[in-house]
Amino acid sequence: MYLDSAATALKPQAVIDKLVEYYTEYSTNVHRGLYPLAEQATESYEKARATVAKFLNADPRGIIFTRSATEAINLVAYSYARNFLKKGQAMVVTEIEHHSNIVPWYLVSTDLALSQRGASLIWWPVEDDGTLDLDVLEVILKQQNVGLVAVTGMSNVLGTLLDIHSIVQKAHAAGAKVLLDAAQLAVHGPIDAQALDVDFLVMTGHKLYGPTGIGVLYGEAELLEAMPPFEGGGEMIREVKKHEITFADPPHKFEAGTPPIAQAIGLGAAIEYLTSLGWDTIESQEQEVTQYVLEQLSRIQGLKIFGPKERGSLVSFAFEGIHPHDLATLLGDEDICVRAGHHCAMPLHTRLGIPASTRASFGVYTTTADIDKLVSALLQIRDRFTQARSRA
Amino acid sequence: MTDLYREEILDHYYHPRNAGKLEPADLVGHETNPLCGDEVTMYLKFDGNHISDVKFEGSGCAISQAATSMLTEYLIGKSKKDLGKLDLKIVLDLLKVQVGPGRINCALLPVQALQKGIEQR
Q: How many other C-beta atoms lie within 10 A of the C-beta of residue A139?
């Protein structure tokens, strides 16, 4: 029983078939091939870009394929933040961020040349109930010179959903750009990059029922136009002379080397799969499971749930007197796959006052019957540990 | 349920042997695993060439704490030479279970604490 979809989602047959089709029928490189099979690869790869663009309601020219969401954030950190943050401008991150949306900004802030310019990192603290207070952001934006706000759309530990629209409005009013980390959010509901007015958005393929090794960066056209390349190599150039190189236009300017062709095509298939299920069905099913698990777990004595009631479809918890790693190992023995640890969110766990938590996260295939199995296994483990503790 | 949590291990976890502090101690070794928050401090006293007393303080998962508790029992009466030869295999023999790659660092924690103590001595 798989309850670790926030780490990576299981892959539908439609995605696997697309990958197999590419590898068996037209496994050729993209761009510049003039024979039909290469044209088919280029067409499928660019069609995947169009599918992602439609999924995010964005211009395909602003869709860059990367290796991962992490690489997409690093691309913005290197090509945008290091070049366009003005003297004295800081970056804001929340206390609930995944390490992938902390470390790249930390590296920018500790870069000697930039830190002398004052590119510091400011933390937007999380409230006790696991939510983020917009008024606190407003104070930060008023008191500090902020150039960039990097926020997740949904916490990978608490499930907290952020009000991105308001965050963007406040940031823009203060002259700051916004990067939205949609690695968790994109799986659970529709995202409209234009309506949200985000400057950058990143997401990953493998949490979205697609293959590993593929991520997406969406960037606002003017910004991508102005930004220097991230990596140099083939694909990203228009013309190379010995002493002068002209770069390709975005998005290709940011796609050096042979891209993850199969993975991009697979991601396109995953999005088509999600679209065929329909957001209404996905959201209502996931919310049913999420509210059910919150209700069931809240009845277990000694079990603490982290995060707000209104949330995306995951839950992290701790059992009094049982270490999260012991819990996850024991659940694993019952073929229940959950994750334990800091979930790449150490600052959040420090804030919660715990070294680790156990997390169950859900996908379109999770049912309330799965939750019943989880709950009964948890009760069994608790009883066994309680017995051992009370034995003299 | 798994052997990893057999009765003896849970017993050591909830009823640790030689829990506490030795002051003064001849050797103190401390180690943490920031990934899971596990923490162990070992205190050793020597009588000539032999370990005369061992105590430990710690917090964390059942595997790390039980392994530490078991190791304190094992160490009392051993020679300084034995202490130098301490390795993962000895702890696994004490635990008498297969520990998977995901949890091996838990079992290793008391050994690492002692090794740090020896280095710092």
A: 12
Q: What domains, with CATH codes, occur in chain B?
A: 3-120 (3.90.1010.10)
Structural tokens at position A172: 């823009």
Domain boundary (A231, A251, A276) is at A276
Closest C-alpha among A266, A188, A185 to residue A218: A185
Q: Given pLDDT bands bounded at 50, 70 and 90, which one contains residue A115?
A: low
> Is A356's CB within 8 Å of B36's CB?
yes
Rounded mean pLDDT of A119-144? 96
ipTM: 0.87
CA A38 to chain centre: 32
Q: Residue A375: which CATH number? A: 3.90.1150.10
Identify whether residues A311 and A251 lie together within a single domain.
no
A375 in the same domain as A259: no
Which residue of A341, A380, A385 is in closest CB contact with B36? Answer: A341
Beta strands in A14-120, from DSSP E residues, in sequence order: 63-66, 90-94
CB of B98 within 8 Å of a chain A CB? The answer is: no
CA A326 to chain centre: 27
Q: What is the largest CA-CA distance in chain B?
A: 45
